[in-house]
Fold:
Amino acid sequence: MSTIHGLLDVRCVGCGNWGTHGCAQCLHTALRAPINLTMSGVPVFALGAYRGPLRDIVRAVKFSGERALLGRLAPAVESLGARFPGAVAIPVPASRSGFVARGFHLTRRIAHRTGLRTSTALVLDDSGSQRQRRRIGRLRGRPMHVARRALRPGTRVVIVDDVITTGATVRSAIDACRLAGLTVVGAIALAATPPVGNHGDSFPNVPVRV
Ligand SMILES: [Zn+2]
Structure:
């Protein structure tokens, strides 16, 4: 509702308080426990677990395209990027349905916030219908590859995703980069959700906090 209060007509996506999309308290809570995992032998850093205010903020960024909120996370994202000086940030490609639904590439936006040089070298394989792709995506990660001659073999790269759930997408991205001769030095995400139950592999049930 429009009132004479103007900017105060905005509510925090975390706590609902008026005045800003993401209040200082919710941001503090969202960013207080970064996560460090190892997947496919490389360090993976996320701003935190996908729950509470961080989940609210990421959902607002992801589904409503709240650029200002992503901007509030930017210093934290840049600090993750600073762990990999000289590396090239490669966003995981958006599924076509996700891009059509949202109209923007969230992972590209995140990659640009890392402060690293970015490359959209990773592209989705053409894998049939959306339903097929979704099924494959859920089970094994999105099939993808590195575009020919996008980056020199040996280039040090960091994978960038929005939310890591099972880790299948990030593993697919790492595999595709390695297949193209790139050196994957790490991965970065806004948030990570450890899977329910023990999936074995390298995604520990108890995240190591850094
Ligand atoms: Zn709040």
User: Anything to note?
Assistant: The radius of gyration is 17 Å.
